[in-house]
Amino acid sequence: MRGIWLIAIYLGIIVLPLILAAVGAKPPRPVWDEIASGAGMVAFAILLAEFLLSGRFRAISGGVGMDVTMRFHQLLARSALALVIVHPFLYTTPFGWALPYDPSRQLTLVQPGPALMAGAAAWILLPAFVLVSIARSDLFKRYENWRWAHGLGAALIAGLSWYHATQAGRYSSDPALYWLWTGLFAVAILSLASVYVLRPITKLRRQWKVCEISKAADQTWAVDLEPVGHDGISYKAGQFFWLNIGHSAFSLSENPFSVASAPAQKGKLSFVIKELGDFTSTLSSIPQGTKAYVDGPFGHMTIERRHEPGIGLIAGGVGIAPMLSILRELDATGDTRPVKLVYGNRNEGQIVASEELDRYAQRQDVDVVHVIAEPGPDWCGETGITDAGFIRRHFGRPEQRDWLYVLCGPPAMMTGAEEVLLALGVAPNNILSERFTYD
Ligand SMILES: Cc1cc2nc3c(=O)[nH]c(=O)nc-3n(C[C@H](O)[C@H](O)[C@H](O)COP(=O)(O)OP(=O)(O)OC[C@H]3O[C@@H](n4cnc5c(N)ncnc54)[C@H](O)[C@@H]3O)c2cc1C
Question: Membrane-crossing residues (predicted)?
Fold first, then answer.
C-alpha cells in the first residue's frame, strides 16, 4: 500500500506543473511547442523528486525498501534524461541565426541571454551526469568521492534548471508555477542538507563506540557497538543502519549494514560485515573504543506485526546478517512459529554463527539447512546452490504457501528464489527482500 501511495505522490509532483500550466490560460501555440514545454516541465519535476528518493527518508524507503527506492531513482533519472534531450528539439518556432545544417531552422533555438545558457548548460551536464552515475564503479575508486560528486552535480543541475525554467519558461513566469518550482527546488536542497548537515548534527549527540570486533568467518567480521551516554536506538529486527566508524560525524565515509542483533537485546548494536573494499578491509585493525555514529534505522525487511503462520528465511553469504537479527528476536521474544532458515555459502569456512544456528536448530520449531557450493571432504550436509529445485524441495509444502519469506543474498539467488516462491503461490506481499547493491 505504501508503494502505491508513494507512486501516487510522485505522479502528483510530476503532473502538478502541467496542471498549473494548463489552467494558466496562455494563448495557444503549435502543439509541438506545448509538448516541448511539457517535456521540459516533467523532466524538471522528476529531477527535483529525485532528491527526495535518494534522501534517506524513512517514510519513502521504509515502505518499499532501499533497493527498490534506488532502482526507481535510477529509472526516473533515465526518463528525465530522455525528456531533457528531446525538449529543445521539439520546439517548432525557430529563432536566432540560420545555421548551415539547419536551413529550415527546425533545430535552432537561440534566445540570447543567461536563461537559455543555463538551460543549455543543464542540457549538457545531465547526460554526462547520468552516464557517470551508470559507470560509477569504474570511474570512482572511492565510493565517498562519487557521493560528493553526485550530490554537488545534482544540486548544480537543479539550480541551472530552476533558473532556466523560471526565467525562460513560458508558463513558469506565472506566479503559481514560479513558486511551485521554487518550493520544490528548496525542498530538494533541504533534503541534501538534511543528509549532510542536519543528521550529522543530531548524530553528534548520540555517539557510539566499538566494543568488540571479532572474526565471524573467513573474511567476515562481527562488529559490536555500544552507546556512549545514551540508551541506544530503537529499531526492528532485519533493518539496516549507515555506519560510520572512526570518522567525523560529518564525514561521507559511512556504509550501509544490516543489523545482526535483536531489538530485544537492548543497548548494543551488532553487525556482520564481509571484507569487500576500502572500509570493510580495515575492520581487523580498528581498535576497541573507536568512536562511531549510526544513521537509521532504515529498511522494510522486518517481521514486526507480521502474523503469518511460519517464516522462511533464505540467505546467501553475508545476507545472513539480517536473518540473525530476526532469529535472535524470535528467540528472545519466545515466538514459537515454525521457522526454516536456508543458508547458502561457497564453503564451510564462510558459515557465520554456526554454533548459534546449531543451537536454534535443536528447537522443535526451527529448522536450519546449510547448503555448500564447494564442500570439503568432511561436509555431510546439502551441497549445491539455493536454486529453483532446492527452494521447491524445502518450501513446497502446501501450508508453507502462507508463510512469510525473507530473502537476502547475492542478486541472482534472490531473483531466482523470488520467482520460485511466486510460482509456488506465495503472495508477493509475503516476500520481503533487501539487496546489498543497487547497481
Ligand atoms: C541495505 C544494505 C545493507 C547491507 N548490509 C550489509 C551487511 O550486513 N554486511 C555486509 O558485509 N555488507 C552489507 N552491505 C554491503 C556493504 O554496504 C558494502 O559491502 C560496503 O559498503 C562496502 O564498503 P567498502 O568501503 O568496504 O567497499 P568499497 O570498495 O568502497 O565499495 C564497494 C561497493 O559497496 C557499495 N558501497 C560502498 N559504500 C557505500 C555506501 N556508502 N552506500 C551504499 N553502497 C555503498 C557500492 O556498491 C560499492 O561499489 C549492505 C548494503 C546495503 C545497501
Answer: 35-54, 75-95, 115-134, 146-165, 177-198
pLDDT in the model for residue 6: 77
pLDDT tens digits, one per residue of 145-194? 888 999 999 999 999 999 999 998 889 888 999 999 999 999 999 999 99
The answer to whether residues 156 and 245 belong to one domain is no
Strand order in the sheet with 431-433: 382-383, 366-372, 339-345, 311-316, 404-408, 431-433
Query: Are 240 and 360 contained in the same domain?
Result: no
Mutate to test the pocket of ligand 1, among 235, 255, 408 (most ligand atoms within 8 A of CB): 255
| Domain co-membership, 189 together with 110 | yes
pLDDT at 172: 87
Are residues 187 and 214 located together in one domain of the fold?
no
> What is the 8-class DSSP label of residue 206?
S
Q: Strands of 291-298's sheet, edge to edge?
A: 255-258, 240-245, 291-298, 208-217, 220-227, 269-274
- The dihedral formed by the CA atoms of 227, 232, 236 and 238, expressed in degrees to the nearest 10: 0
Pairing of strands 366-372, 382-383: parallel
Residue 243 lies in a domain: yes
Q: Report whether 6 contacts 64 (CB < 8 A).
A: yes
* Cβ-based neighbours of 101, under 8 Å, separated by 6 or more: 107
- Residue 400 shares a structural domain with residue 276: no
Weakly modelled stretches of the chain, pLDDT under 70: 1-2, 61-64, 93-112, 438-439
Q: How many CB atoms lie within 10 A of CB 188?
A: 22
The CA 207 to ligand 1 mean position distance, Å, reads 22
CA of 392 to the centre of ligand 1 (A): 31
- Whether residue 297 is preceded by a cis peptide bond, meaning omega within 30 degrees of 0, is yes
In a domain, 144, yes or no: yes
Report the candidate in 407, 429, 410 with the shortest Cα–Cα distance to residue 418.
407
Q: Give the domain CATH number at 172.
A: 1.20.120
Peptide bond into 94 cis (omega under 30): no
Residue nearest to atom 47 of ligand 1 (CA): 437
